[in-house]
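Every protein is a chain of amino acids, and every chain bends into a shape of its own. The protein below has been through that process, and both of its lines are reproduced in full.
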Amino acid sequence: MKKYVDVILPLPLPKYFTYSLPDECAEEVEIGCRVIVPFGRKKFYTAIVRNVHYCAPTEYEVKEISALLDASPILLPTQFKFWEWLADYYLCTQGDVYKAALPSGLKLESETIVEYNPDFEADTPLSEREQRILDLLSVDSQQCVTKLEKESDMKNILTVIKSLLDKEAIFVKEELRRTYKPKTEARVRLAGSADEKRLHILFDILSRAPKQLALLMKYVECSGVLGRETPKEVSKKELLQRAGVSPSILNGLVEKKIFEIYFHEVGRLNQQVKDVVELNALNEFQQRAHDEIIQSFQEKNVCLLHGVTSSGKTEVYIHLIEETIRQGKQVLYLLPEIALTTQITERLQRVFGSRLGIYHSKFPDAERVEIWRKQLGEKGYDIILGVRSSVFLPFRDLGLVIVDEEHENTYKQQDPAPRYHARNAAIVLAAMYGAKTLLGTATPSIETWQNATSGKYGFVQLKERYKEIQLPEIIPVDIKELHRKRRMVGQFSPLLIQYMKEALEQKEQVILFQNRRGFAPMVECRTCGWVPKCKNCDVSLTYHKGINQLTCHYCGYTYQLPKSCPACEGTELVNRGFGTEKIEDDIKVLFPEAAVARMDLDTTRTRAAYEKIIADFEQGKTDILIGTQMVSKGLDFDHVSIVGILNADTMLNYPDFRSYERAFQLMAQVAGRAGRKNKRGRVVLQTKSIEHPIIHQVIGNNYEEMVDGQLAERQMFHYPPYYRLVYVYLKNHNESLLDQMAAVMADKLRMVFGNRVLGPDKPPVARIQTLFIKKIVLKIEQNAPMGRARELLQRIQKEMLEDERYKSLIVYYDVDPM
């Protein structure tokens, strides 16, 4: 009987494809293994086996798989269930989920670009095919797989690429180079026996070569070779450093056959075992919260811990993690932002040492692959600390999921599909394992609050700040009035400048918050009002002074700043608005002595950059930190006494039903960074709308008042948490065709969903990367069957795409948009 496999391809295809198995690997293929398959005319992809069976498909000609990549599955059965749920709920395909879930090193395809590793040294001879690929790469160090296939004239090249990747002779390009650590370390040992007699003979031989003798003595000291049965391993680098000699001295000893050098594999994941410390004892409030959480987990699967900023939620988490691990189960600890993982890593490593694994996108791909593989084995990590993508990792026995700062919108993936929300996905994932989920935050999202207060989730409050620090004093400043009286210094009110000055004099630190990166959000001609716009997107360009260029924050395109206005040839081009870069400039003029750093998307492109900015601020090397919302997210600094929110209005005046909720969360979180041990912090909140109710709610830290107002409004206008939203996006290069298609699709939707359909409308940015965009909003009652709505949406999409005129239409969905 011929065997067949159904596979998931990393492409947005609605169904599985079937391939036949060659006899030689028919026995070894299991569900969850990767295979290389031909697809289309000349492309190869890494696909994942979903089923193995004996029935041949009849509607298309079956191709054969080209190679089997794994001896054992790289996906566990629960992950397939999870993928199905994601694709189903977020209206995308399993191929989309596959692309998002796996690290690139596990999904090679014809378009993958590979790059030669100049530091590669072969330990074993390479096969002829491997050597041929490396020869081609030595001519041109970066090439795509298709090109290599053509030039080498080899069939089935992906298996060769995979073996070179495993040997680390090549990299998958999409990584920053510096993040690769070597896999091996050169070490030194004595050639031959190491008894006292022989050493004395060697000392005599070397008496005329003092440097070689010193090196040998140093080796004897480092390795303890005389006192032990097995000498300590000594690395070449360390030995040379400690003896203070050049490598040529060591080479001389190797030539004399006294020393030999060998390579020891050290692995990429951080193996060094740090000394683990005992858990800190909880104070009475934390202990009470901890016990209430345990209590609520007996009846409910999800619990919300609502604790004010710096009430010590992390300590409570650490105790819960420790108890879960003691039962032999695994923990997934989710954070919204990479910056946070670097800070919390330290705290967790002190307690859990090497049982902790860290997973996020700023890690090089090879490290992500290694973590993935480790998680499949019996010796996986007990705790994974990571950002939203870590919900995709394999878990053998998950017992607890913690979602910290659960209100953060960075938990929601925007593009590409699956547009999932990691908090909601984590709750579902935990349920599949029979695990519990703890959501923690000082400012819960309104949906979670509703679930907790209606009894669907458990609800625990922690109202006292750690060591009884007072909440910061929030001082509102009316900058509209100050602007009118011309009393503002750039973007700073006199009060903020005075407080900053006092803080710096007392060697305290300051955080300034501005939710725009760049130098000036807009450049404008003073004469005729012309504003430079992106040629691919409908947005004005942001001026970045550091690179002296205009940049589009949507497609990344950069433009030269014109010397004169192309419309009226006037030369007065002025900056409007201000971003973090401009603030940084102004601060350096006002406080030339202070050390200033900024933290935004532009300064934190790499993992090291993040860690450096945070470490410098923690150690007091930086006095003033300027940042976008990155600085608001749960970072703990001990010496911050002043926080300045430079303009609260940009958050309030955004056309979105969540803008009030978000403004409250952002301001409360930013404010929470002020004031730590033994001193009350101050927050200066600058705004032009001083009478706005949100401003008063933030000052009084009155979360519940804000929620009650918002809930009443949302119930009236049919928004979450009472209704579910689905945004239907339509895209096309041709604007008039798109308008016509959007109108047709909206009519079809109205025939089925009636007045639950709004639109079609233009989103705030109506063209991105030369594609025009239209948006249709669907509001579905909370208790309506989502499965039925899904079927209807997919049927209508299919009808649209089967129409000859609308073939070029791109349709995608955003379920529960943020």
Residues 508 and 639 are 5 Å apart (CA to CA).
